[in-house]
Design brief:
By secondary structure, this protein is mainly α. The protein contains 7 helices and 2 strands; from the N terminus they run ααααβααβα. The termini are far apart.
């Protein structure tokens, strides 16, 4: 039986018992008891964690953008850091999806990945990939 199942069963058996008492019986924290027995608490925690992750991603990206010069190396765009993207100089060095995979976790890993990159705005990044893939550049031909 999982901790969640034991917690719910114990809460049903002792509906008046507080989360501290149930936590002591189960050998876990009162927060764990609340998480497993109160859907409103669980939803609140998920929203809080989600907000914290988004905030951490934005903070990490801002720092990394500044570390790489704060502007597109091709055109000099720097108005909105969210529009700046990390482009790997050597695609074979890329881990997973690149810097974006590292932003929510360990900052040192994100920094290590970002140092393999140059900073490009969204438009220049797409142009760069077109050129790398030998696709039509600058205009759509044949229309």
């Amino acid at each position: 039986m999982t901790l969640k199942e034991r917690t719910i069963k114990l809460k049903e058996a002792f509906p008046d018992a507080g989360s501290m008492k149930l936590g002591r019986i189960l050998g876990c924290s009162n927060t764990t008891v609340k998480f497993h027995t109160n859907s409103k608490y669980r939803a609140g925690q998920i929203k809080k964690n989600s907000a914290n992750i988004k905030e951490r991603i934005a903070k990490h990206k801002f720092i990394l953008v500044q570390h790489l010069g704060g502007q597109c190396v091709e055109c000099g765009y720097r108005e909105c850091y969210a529009a700046l993207e990390f482009h790997h100089k050597d695609p074979s060095q890329k881990i997973g999806r690149g810097v974006s995979d590292c932003l929510s976790g360990n900052f040192d890993k994100a920094l290590e990945e970002a140092e393999k990159c140059v900073l490009l705005c969204g438009n220049c990044h797409q142009k760069q990939h077109e050129q790398e893939n030998n696709l039509v550049t600058n205009s759509v031909q044949g229309l």
